[in-house]
Each structure stands twice: as structure tokens, then as C-alpha cells.
Design a protein that fits this description.
0% strand, globular
Length: 42
């Protein structure tokens, strides 16, 4: 099964907070704080 980056971030957010983010802005902020610098260095 192939997951998109968005699906991975959604699952990670849900695992961390026990729910899905209320909107994509929250998810974008979370993804940047958690992974932004890591993805930028790839």
C-alpha cells in the first residue's frame, strides 16, 4: 500500500493527539514543526 505524505502526516498527528486536526492549517503547522527541517534537508 502506498501512502501520500498528507496521509502520513494525518496518521502521525492522530497518533500524537488522539484525533484528526480540525483543519489543514493546523496540520501544516504541525508537519513543519515536526518534520520541516528534516524534509528540507533531503
Amino acid at each position: 500500500m502506498r501512502m501520500t505524505i498528507l496521509e502520513i502526516f494525518l496518521e502521525d498527528y492522530k497518533r500524537s493527539f488522539g484525533k484528526f486536526p480540525p483543519d489543514l492549517a493546523v496540520l501544516r503547522e504541525y508537519a513543519w514543526k515536526e518534520y520541516g527541517y528534516k524534509l528540507k534537508n533531503l
